[in-house]
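Reopening this ticket.

The earlier resolution said the output was attached, but the attachment link was broken on my side. Pasting everything inline this time so it's all in one place.
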Amino acid sequence: MPPEPLIHHHVIDRLAIIAGFGSGLALYPQVYLILTNGSPDGVSILTFGVILINSFVWLLYSVHRLLLSLGIASVLNIIASSTVIIWYLGLPPGI
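Inline output:
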């Protein structure tokens, strides 16, 4: 049996793609404030660590189940949370 396509043409599937981007971008205002202020004050490193680990698990699941919308959200959350953690630990971005 061939795998299902990554993008279906049903309305709910298209809404899921939009929601994937929306939930994946939810952390970016916080990341922006940290990068522009130059300080991670007021940010919980534990929270972003949990988000990072959780996003990796969801990414594995989305790849396993071929769920594009969940994969989008997972990748965006991994990028955002790892950026905050790197900044919090005092490492220069880009390493």
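Reporter confirms the inline version is readable. The mean pLDDT is 81. The radius of gyration is 15 Å.
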